Amino acid sequence: MWEMIMGELDHAMQELARNFAHFLPRLLAMLIIALLGWVVASLLRVVLRAILRIVKLDRLSDNAGTTQMLNKLALPSSSELLSRVVFWVVWLGFILLGVQVLGIVGLQEYVSRFFLYLPRLFGAMFIVFFGLVAASFFSRAALLAAVNADSPSPRLLATVIRTIIVVFSVSMAFEQLGLAERTILVTFAIAFGALMLGLALAFGLGGRDLARRFLERRFLKEKEEQKHDELSPL
Amino acid sequence: MDLLVGVPTHNNARTVGETVQGIRVGLLKYFPRERAVILNLDAGSKDSTREVVAAASINDVQRSADLYALRTLPCISMVYGDSPATEVALRTVLAAAELLRAKACAIVSPESTNITPDWMERLLRPVHRDNFDLVTPVYRRHKFDGLLLRNLIYPMTRALYAKRVREPYGVEFAFSGRFCSHLLEMQVWDHDAGGVGTELRMTIAAIAGGFRLYQTFLGTKPHLDRTADLVAAIRQTVGTLFWSAEPNFQYWSGNRGTESVPTSGAEYDLTTEPIRVNRKRLYQLFGSGVGELEPVLKSILSPQTLEEIQAIATLSEENFRYPHELWVKTAYEFASSYHKSVINRDHIIQALAPLYRGKVYTFLVENRDASGEEVEANVEDLCLTFERLKPYLLDLWNAGE
């Protein structure tokens, strides 16, 4: 009886040792892949950081208002953030490759999904960044045009334009990521519709007098004033 | 061909006939022996501009002015496009001048109905007889006319390029065949701002290219409609001046002091009859502009300059003054930001408009009761401030490069 138990234990230990002997090289391979991944990802981070510095992404980001937004969220500059994102994505990719080498059943599908998802992730980041750049450009253009035309509430106009473009690009990014597509679409439609309806009501009912005064000022008084302003800049 | 006179037109039927006849009389009177041609370049006028040009007959001139032509004086009219484009028109004149090997060329505005025959002599003789390369005009102006020119374009051009050219953005001017060939060869035509401010680019090209400049007094400035919009005027002139500073950096960065340009007639002539100006509106637009554009101005100006501008924006209308030094620093910081493209370049140009209004308000208040000489002294003081602070622009320009 005792011998049987010892025999089974010995068999189990041998099995464990054999399995471990099979698993150890895979584990080492995974660690090597992860280490190699870290080296590659670190190199990429350094190279990307240098390239982004050359193309002055931070300045573009300053102009787009992205830097201010990142500062508020206690995040580093755009070039640093992008470098770090690339580092982690590349390293995670290598780690997952390594995990695949371990041969754990069921994990391979998740790894494939991750790699298939990467282009979407980068696409979404791209959309958000250029959405912010476009929002900054058009809101500034509107602000300048409104100030130089002496229109009322130029900052409000600029903020509205900025918000619309940002909301639009964020919803596009979510759609790109495939996250809550319907919810985002419906939310966007409701928010946009509500904004337009609110503006229509405000101008149509609440702001009738304001609109009248505004139009009078624009088309009657201003012309009168311009008549009195005979200065030619050149 | 000895002489070529270009007249770019667009819907100028009302005035172009008179202008063409004025040119003709001038050419027949002062250059009877030279071979000359008048070239009308039309931008697809919808009125009868071209017909009016064609109908302006030499016989009428000879009858009324008692002049006799020793040579034929052709007047050619052609269409260069369907919308006005000064750059295309000027380039066409240059190409025609080179093709015809004209020794001297002049450009005359079709709206210059106050043209007198001696304009042709004043514009063309320095080029044709005295070998000057670019003749720019000097006009009789009201003391409050052309304030962008006198508060920014003239002083800054003078400080940068070390030549006292009064009207670097003239409507009428003349140039030599030599300078014409130089212009056609160089890259003055590639401009981000869409082909505006060609006249100013030509003046700067002449200075930077070492060509001989001359100024000539033409009398009262014709009242043109080309600058109704302040932002458009700033784009045409300030945008061009800032843009030109880049390719000519080597030239202007080494200059110190200024030189006068040979001039026939008065160097300035300011009239002082009272005109109605809405100063209050300028003051209000400055105040609201500084307040509303704070995020944009932050990107363009240094914190100290912005702080000073914001401080003067809080002053009452009676106490408000935009000092020369602050204005010069503002202009130089705008030029540097334009060079570095800190934000979109056109946005930088547009952001200058409210600040310019503040400077104009100050100019109007300071010179309300001033004589022509006093106004001139004020402008001279501003010019000297631009010259004194030129190292400040160089420091800004070179910072971070």
Structural account:
The complex is a heterodimer of chains A (234) and B (401). With 234 residues, chain A is mainly alpha-helical. Chain A has a domain of 80 residues. Chain A is built from 8 helices and no strands. With 401 residues, chain B is of the alpha/beta class. Chain B has 2 domains: 269 residues, Spore Coat Polysaccharide Biosynthesis Protein SpsA, Chain A, CATH 3.90.550.10; 120 residues, no CATH class. Chain B has 17 helices and 11 strands. In chain B, strands 1, 2, 3, 4, 5, 7, 8, 10 and 11 form a 9-stranded mixed sheet that branches. In chain B, helix 6 runs parallel beside helix 9, helix 14 runs antiparallel to helix 15 and helix 14 runs parallel beside helix 17. The relative contact order of chain B is 0.11. The model of chain B has no long low-confidence stretch (mean pLDDT 88). At the A-B interface, helix 2 and helix 5 of A face helix 6, helix 9, helix 11, helix 12 and helix 15 of B.
Please describe the structure with a list of short key phrases separated by commas or semicolons:
heterodimer, A: 234 residues, mainly alpha, 8 helices, 88% helix, elongated, B: 401 residues, alpha/beta, Spore Coat Polysaccharide Biosynthesis Protein SpsA, Chain A, 2 domains, nine-stranded mixed sheet, two-stranded parallel sheet, 17 helices
CATH topology of the largest domain in chain B: Spore Coat Polysaccharide Biosynthesis Protein SpsA, Chain A
* Broad shape of chain A: elongated
Return the string of H and E elements of chain A: HHHHHHHH
Q: Quick one: overall form of chain B?
A: globular
CATH superfamily of the largest domain in chain B: Spore Coat Polysaccharide Biosynthesis Protein SpsA, Chain A
Largest sheet data of chain B? 9 strands, mixed
Distance between the termini of chain B: 49 Å
Strand content of chain B: 5-15%
| Rg calculated over all Cα atoms of chain A | 30 Å
Topology as H/E string of chain B? Answer: EHEHHEHEHEHEEHHEHHEEEHHHHHHH
State the domain count of chain B.
2
According to DSSP, the number of beta strands of chain A is 0
Q: Mean pLDDT score of chain B, rounded? A: 88
Low-confidence stretches of chain B: none
The rounded distance between the terminal residues' Cα atoms of chain A is 113 Å
β-sheet strand percentage of chain A: under 5%
CATH class of the largest domain in chain B: Alpha Beta
Helix tally of chain A? 8
Structural class category of chain A: mainly alpha
| Chain oligomer state | heterodimer
Q: Report the biggest beta sheet of chain A as strand number plus sense, adding barrel if it closes.
A: none
